[in-house]
Amino acid sequence: MPQIKTLLIVILVLFIGCTGTFSSVNAQSIEPYELDWKKEAPILATGTFTQLTFFILHRKSEPLTEQQIAALDPLKVPTFDRYSLNHYSTKAAKLSDILLYTAPLVPLSLLADKPVRENLGTTMAIYGETMLLTSGITALTKQLASRTRPYAYMSEVPLDKKQHLDTKMSFFSGHTSSAAASYFLFAKTYHDYHPNSDWKPVVWASSATVPALMAYLRCRGGKHFPSDVIVGYIVGAAIGILVPEIHKVKN
To answer: What pLDDT, in 10s, does the model give residues 114-144?
Structure first.
C-alpha cells in the first residue's frame, strides 16, 4: 500500500502540472481526444472522493487478531477460490511487484509517438484521470470488502505477517487493476491515434496478456483469490478503455 500511495502522489503532481496548460492545449487539440471540464469534473470528483473516503476509513481499521486468524476456515472459502489456498510463492509475489512498478510507465511510452506528444496536455490529463480513478475505486472497495487474503489461511506463513493490516485487503486485486488500466489505456490510445495500423491486433493482444500474467502471479503468490483478480482485471480494463473513450472528439 505505501508504494501505491507514493505512485499516486507522483501521478497527481504530474497531472496537476499538465492541467495548467489545459486551455492552450485544448484550443490546439487534434484528433482523437479533447478536454472538457464537464467531463473532467465528475472523473476527478469520483477519484478524489474514493481516495479520501478510503484514507478516512483505513485509519480506523484494525488488523486481524490471533483468535480471528485461528478461526479462519478454508472450507468456508468458495470452491472456485480455493486454488490460492494451496500456493504461496514469494518469487511470484516479487515478480508481480516488478510488474506493478513498471505498468504505469507503459502508457507513457506513447509519448515517443509525435501525434501523441503534440497533444501532451490532453494525453497526460487522460493518463492521470485513469490512474486516479483506478486507484481510488480499488482502494475503497478493498477497504469496504475487508476480505482476508489467502495466505492468512496457511500455517507456513508467520503470524506477524498475517496480523498486518494489509491482510484484510484482498478484494479486489490492486496489482491486477492497475496493470489492466495501464495496458488497456496504452492499447486504446494507440488504437485511437492509429486506427489503420496493422499493429493493432498485436498491441491489444499483448496489452490483454500482461495483466492476465499479473493475475496469475497474484494467485500463485497467495496474495489473492481468483475472484479477486478477475474483478480487478475487469475494473482496470474498463477504466483504461472508458476514460479515453469519454474524451473522444465528436465528429
So the answer is: 999 999 999 999 999 999 999 999 999 999 9
Is the entire prediction scored with pTM above 0.70? yes
The set of cell numbers assigned to 207 is: 496489452
Question: CB of 95 within 8 A of CB of 8?
Answer: no
Separation between Cα atoms, residue 84 and residue 153, nearest integer Å: 10
pLDDT, averaged across the chain: 89
Are 126 and 204 in contact, with CB atoms under 8 Å apart? no
CA dist 195 and 187 (Å) reads 11
Cell 506477524 sits at which residue?
A: 160
What is the per-residue pLDDT for 250? 83
What is the residue extent of each domain of the chain? 2-246
Q: 2-246 architecture in CATH?
A: Up-down Bundle (1.20)
Instruction: Measure CA of the first residue to CA of the last residue in the chain; give whole Å.
Output: 42
Contact between residue 128 and residue 14 where contact means Cβ atoms under 8 Å apart? yes
